[in-house]
Structure formats: structure tokens, C-alpha cells
Amino acid sequence: MRHVLKRTGTGVAAALTWAGLIAGLAGLTGCTVGETFTESKSRAPGDTIRISPEDGAKDIKRGDRIEVRVPDGRLERVDVAQVENAQRKELPGRISDDGLVWTPEAGANVVLAAKYSVDVIAVDGAGRRSARHSTFTTAVPKHRFIGYFKPENRSTVGTGMIVSFDFNRKIANRAAVQRAIRVTSDPPVEIVGHWFGGQRLDFRPREYWKPGTEVTVDLRLRDVQAAPGVFGIQEKKVGFRVGRSQVSLVDAGKHTMEVRRDGALVSTVPITAGAPKTTTYNGKMVVTELYDVTRMNGATVGFGGEYDIKDVPHALRLTTSGTFLHGNYWAPPDTFGSTNVSHGCVGLRDVKGGSADTPAGWFFDRTLVGDVVEVVNSADRTVDPDNGLGGWNLDWRKWKAGSAVAG
Fold first, then answer.
1. Rg over CA atoms, the chain
2. Domain holding 148: CATH number?
3. pLDDT along the chain (407 residues), means of 10
4. CA 36 to CA 41: how far, in whole Å?
5. What pLDDT does 296 receive?
6. Do the domain assignments include residue 304?
7. Where are the alpha helices (H) located in 167-290, listed in sequence order?
């Protein structure tokens, strides 16, 4: 089995990951990535990589224990890094001589008000390779707030990329915070912010970005009051470049996906979408993560023992709730282009281990974070605009109505 490569954008440091499925939301019918088995959670046999702090932990302080451990076998690689910041920064560490424990180097420590990813590859006592991915956030000083943002600084993204901020505290003074974040582009277009609740703010233009656009995000949040007694601490400028246009149209009724590059049809790929009882969302979805290989376990999303596939190849995340477009090597070849059989994802023909010569491998190798995949003719509702980067499903009037700033 290959190591797992998670891509967050061209030009961005890659992180090695293996991701299991988790049950994310009620009614979830897709596939989700990110389950990490930690010391505080029960573990299935073979799921023995233990990460401290646990996945999703918050308010981690300097000096708190950061450790990766396996009971047998050995750790092959551990990557702990600050992410969703102006610059990705590794936390240096070392694996013990017996291969069982990773800890930070002497004197190395996390910084406050930051988000970290932990990516691990290990081989157990039976020689089976596995991997885990988790995240945690460090403590933000009292009475301060911070925004974690995507895409990565200096990345190259698809034309559907939406600038998205997740704040660690609820924002009461939304107008002040929105005014303190200036998103501009070259060539210039109107860019408007839209709030989803009190802790998420997304920015996009009216139409998809033009290829070659340079986007700058200027954060001037230092000392901006977000709520009574709560002030910002960020003062930085980041940016990204928009690459070529690639928009793919999945027709669940015809079992096809038309891939258009810069407006021209380059391929029509046979697909399988969600089965009648587990349909795929309609609407515009944006690729946010790419995994060479991932695990999909039906027991974690309410399907009992219907499936547990440990090596799903060429997986592209489309929604937060768990919709993926991925390679499928277990369905008969004549499924693709003729029948919908999935649990909500979009499947392309592949082979075990993945291959660049299959439809799934071909599409994966030509995809950027920020590319758009639109699904039509599925017997399901339109994906929610805050499920992943689904904001393109709101028309411009409704998008602007979600802004806290008039104009």
C-alpha cells in the first residue's frame, strides 16, 4: 500500500495522512475523513496509533504533553505543523530509538493562538502500515480572538476557491471584524463577505475567479473588538494565485461527469453516484482536500457492516459532512456509466492501489484545491452553502444579504 499524500494546494507542503471515516452529522450519507483514535477513545483492533492531544482538542497550552505513541511495531514518520497561518511551520521532534514514541525536541514548543495538524505513518507488529491525521488548537490569550483561514498562503487554487475564516470565539460585532479583513484581487473584482452564524465568515466574488488572478487577504484584526472585552491579535497579509479553470459537471441521471478545462470539454468520464436510498447532494461543491488513499468504514456513518474499505484511492473531499469524489476498484467495471450504487459519494473506476491510468487517477492528478464539481439530476436536495465551500449555491443577492457591511 502506498503512503498517503494529502494535498491542500499546489505549492503547499504536503502532509502524510491516513484518514478513517467518522459519523459527522445526522442524515449523513457520504464518506468522511479524519477519525483519529487517541488515548481517550476506544480503539478497534489495529487502530493503535495514539496521539496526544486528542483530535479536535482546544486550548492546548505551552508545556502540555504532545506525543505520538504505538504499542508495537514502529513509527515511520511524524509530522506536526502549524497550519492555516501565514506560513506553515514544523514543530521539530524525534522518534525514540525503539521507534515507539515521538516527542518534540528539547526546547521546542507550540505557539499560542495557532492551529496544528498531526500526521503519522506507522507499521505495526504484523507489518501492516497505517496512518492517522488529527488537529488541535492552542490556547488563545484571555479576551482575545483569532481567525483560522483557508486557502493556504502562497498556494495555487482552482477558480471556485472561497476565502473562509473560522473564528475561535463567537463574533458579536460582525461589521467591525469584517471591515478589518480586506480581500482584494488583481485584476480587481467586487468581493463580498458572508456570515454563516457567529463564527464563520466567507469571501467570494460574484462569479468564479478568472484564471491568473492574484488574491490578497489583509488581516488588520489587532485590537479590533469582536465582543465585549474580546479583541483581535492578528496583523498579517497573505495571498494566493488562481490557476487554470476546471469545472466538472456530474450528471447523476446519465452517470457521467463532463470535465471542462478553461471552458473546453476535455473528457466525459463514466461515474456512479448515490444509490436510490443514499443519494448524492445536488449543487456546486468545491474540492478542499485530496488524499491518495483513505479508509471508508460503513460502521462509522450508520451503515453497520455494509463496507469497510481500508484503501480507497484518489479521494477528493467535496463537503464537510462527508461527500467525496473517489476511485472505486471494487464495483464491476460496467457499473460506471450505468448504475448508481454508492452511499452518497461520486465514484470513478480505479484499481486496487490506485493508478494514474484509470479515470479516477487521471482526474485526481489534474485537480486543484478550489476546483468546482457540480452535481445535477440527483434525487436529493441542494447542498447547504455552509457545508464545505458551498457558497456558490447562493445567488449574488442572497450572498450579499449575509454581509455585515453595507454597500
1. 21
2. 2.60.40.3710
3. 41 29 31 34 53 94 94 93 83 96 95 90 78 88 92 95 96 98 98 98 98 98 96 95 98 98 98 96 96 69 63 91 94 97 96 94 98 98 98 98 93
4. 9
5. 72
6. no
7. 174-179
Edge-to-edge strand list for the sheet holding 144-145: 144-145, 230-232, 225-227
Pairing of strands 230-232, 144-145: parallel
**Does the bond joining 104 to the residue before it have cis omega, within 30 degrees of 0?**
no
For residue 237, give the 3-state DSSP assignment: strand
110: which DSSP letter? P
Q: In whole angstroms, what separates CA 124 from the centre of its chain?
A: 27
Query: Are the beta carbons of 123 and 27 closer than 8 angstroms?
Result: no
What's the pTM value of the predicted model, to 2 decimals? 0.80
Is residue 22 helix, strand or coil?
A: coil
Owning domain of residue 226: 144-243
Handedness of CA 321, 325, 330, 334 (dihedral sign): positive
Q: How far apart are CA 54 and CA 36, in angstroms?
A: 8
